[in-house]
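Tokens for chain A. Residues wanted.
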């Protein structure tokens, strides 16, 4: 199908919806109880006094003194999400945290660098969806090690990255079911430049051609490289929730599907059904 590209006009907006519920106040920001008390493992602050991150590329958590007892986990009982024809197991966040405290998994962040720098799972590496980053640390990990991916809302990007790793031969790969922001809300171990930042989710709904069903719709904030994605449904519809840092309703967002690309302020996109004819 012929691709069409449009630039939508900048229009002031009203309320937008999000992962944490709808709000009519665009200035309302959810605030976590975490604080950056110490720094270790590079220039990032942390939300606690943790052992240093001795090897920033290995994706392992630090060696905690207080290690929880081993427990039986039936991974076959996990739900799955299908990405590019690959069934990706979804690990509950409490199980992922149990593995984290016991150093039984390597962790990777499938979001963008801006989001990773703001806050991430302590010890995790950046491995952006769908194909990783240049000189990606994950490429050096043994393929029989357990790998846990995460993203923001809640597991689309991490599912994409996990599916790519499974296709590449990694044997035990998971995406955190509830996503990073549940990890953040539980005050699990984190590092970053602004651990108190909890950007509100903003929903974009759109419609592409039904011929694009099963393919990916993307939303990007190009100045910072932040992006989100969703699978296009059988009827051409798609829905994605953006939790971008330092982005407001006036920020320009590019939405791209296989048959069109549009750019408009986030608020304009959030109050409309995005189509090729958005003006």
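Reply:
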């Amino acid at each position: 199908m012929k691709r069409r590209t449009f630039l939508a006009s900048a229009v002031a907006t009203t309320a937008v919806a999000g992962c944490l519920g709808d709000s009519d106040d665009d200035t309302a920001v959810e605030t976590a109880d975490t604080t950056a008390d110490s720094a270790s493992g590079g220039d990032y602050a942390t939300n606690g006094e943790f052992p240093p991150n001795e090897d920033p590329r290995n994706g392992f958590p630090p060696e905690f003194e207080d290690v929880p007892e081993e427990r039986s986990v039936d991974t076959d009982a996990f739900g799955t999400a299908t990405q590019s024809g690959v069934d990706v197991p979804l690990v509950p966040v409490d199980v992922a945290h149990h593995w984290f405290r016991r150093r039984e998994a390597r962790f990777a962040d499938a979001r963008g660098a801006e989001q990773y720098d703001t806050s991430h799972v302590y010890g995790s590496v950046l491995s952006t969806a769908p194909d990783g980053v240049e000189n990606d640390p994950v490429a050096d990990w043994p393929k029989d090690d357990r790998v846990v991916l995460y993203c923001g809302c809640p597991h689309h990007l991490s599912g994409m990255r996990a599916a790519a790793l499974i296709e590449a031969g990694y044997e035990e790969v998971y995406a955190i079911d509830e996503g990073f922001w549940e990890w953040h809300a539980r005050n699990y171990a984190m590092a970053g430049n602004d651990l108190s930042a909890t950007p509100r989710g903003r929903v974009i709904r759109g419609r592409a051609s039904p011929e694009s069903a099963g393919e990916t719709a993307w939303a990007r904030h190009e100045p910072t490289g932040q992006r989100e994605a969703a699978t296009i449904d059988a009827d051409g519809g798609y829905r994605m929730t953006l939790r971008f840092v330092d982005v407001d309703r006036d920020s320009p967002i590019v939405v791209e599907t296989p048959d069109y690309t549009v750019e408009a302020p986030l608020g304009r996109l959030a109050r409309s059904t995005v189509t090729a004819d958005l003006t």
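The radius of gyration is 19 Å. The chain has a mean pLDDT of 87.
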